[in-house]
Each structure stands twice: as C-alpha cells, then as structure tokens.
Prior knowledge:
Blueprint: E1 22-25, E2 31-39, E3 42-46, E4 54-56, E5 61-63, H1 66-81
Antiparallel strand pairs: 1-2, 1-5, 2-3, 3-4
Amino acid sequence: MYGENASPNSERPLPVPDPGTLLADTSRGDRVGEFQGVAGPYWSLRPAGGGREWEVEPRYVRPALLMEQLRARTARLNARSRGEVL
Length: 86
C-alpha cells in the first residue's frame, strides 16, 4: 500500500498513484479524496464530490477501501446531479 509501511525517515520513495485514484488520508480521520498530483513533498487530494484540495504527506495515505470508494463515487454523482461538479 502507499504509505502504510513507510516510516518518516524512509529513503525509498512511494509510488505515485494515477490522477483520480481514490485515497484515504489517515491523518484526517480517513478522509477520502481523489489524487490530483504532487506538490513538493506532499500529495494533493480533492474530495470526490468537489471542494477544496488539501495536501498530505504520502506516508499518511492508503488506498480507499471499497466501501469508501462507493461513498465517494455516490457523493460525486449526487454533486454532479445538482450541477456542482462537471
């Protein structure tokens, strides 16, 4: 997994996920977001239903669980039906 086994002093870089990959930020109570890109030492995530991006250290990121993915995709579809997201 992405940041699960990495330590803060790890020399080995973590693999960068594809844009749009759903990830959970364990430093923010497993908040789920879509991977947007790399910003210096941080990864940028955005809520699937739209909203402000946030940055997180890769060591605090893990792939979203299936249930988390379903919730995020449902939130995105609901936001899209309201015209909030393209």
